[in-house]
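Weekly structure sync, notes
Attendees: PL, DS, HV (note-taker this week)

Item 1: 1-acyl-sn-glycerol-3-phosphate acyltransferase
DS walked through the input record. Source organism listed as Pseudomonas flexibilis. Sequence as pasted into the shared doc:
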Amino acid sequence: MLSALRLFLLCAYSALASLTGLFLCLLHPFNPENTRRCARLFALPSQRFLGIRVDADIEELNKPDQACVIVANHQSNYDLFVLGGVVPPRTVSLGKKSLKWIPLFGQLYWLAGNVLLDRGNAIRAKQAMLTTTEALRDRQVSIWVFPEGTRNAGTELLPFKKGAFQMAIAAGAPIVPVCVSRYTELLDLNRPESVRVKVRALPAIATTGLTLDDMPALMERCRARMSTVIDELSAETAAALPSAAGH
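Item 1 (cont.): predicted structure, written out as tokens:
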């Protein structure tokens, strides 16, 4: 019963947030601040509906030095609500072209200035990558990417795809890893207690002077660092569960 109520509230609020976000984006279409505003609009109230409590350590995300490529682990469709409150200023994300056809949300995602990738069309995908590289280098816009390319369902990190790292090297932009504790198995919408989710931004990884020959080692270094921290955060949240405290 509680699960049905939470999902009803989430759906109703998401429709309202989409309409509100569309209105805001129509006033300033493709403004790089739109994504942050809309992400917070969706996430903060929705965390209350879902019973999610986010503990965020994101100082590394808010350093004003330069634009960066942000890479985060991707667990479920609830990531929007978990991570929406930590999106830094002047940040857009990369998403699949299919998102555009989701009623209201897809049009909002596009108008907010996010980049839609047509992975089935190599020429268009390459052009989108060139556009985001230019945004990183010349417009001081950061790019948020889920480098696994799909949801991992709260398991170990999937292999990373190259796109985020190609962009970072081409633009000479640092990579900031964002790690989220595993929460999909802990999230029970019928349970009244909130689920604690930890988010931590790691120190930036410099790409200045790197070439594409350095990319495999860069990807492995980033993935290994993220995997270690995700394990640590997940162990901390598991230890804080009431059942764990009782043993």
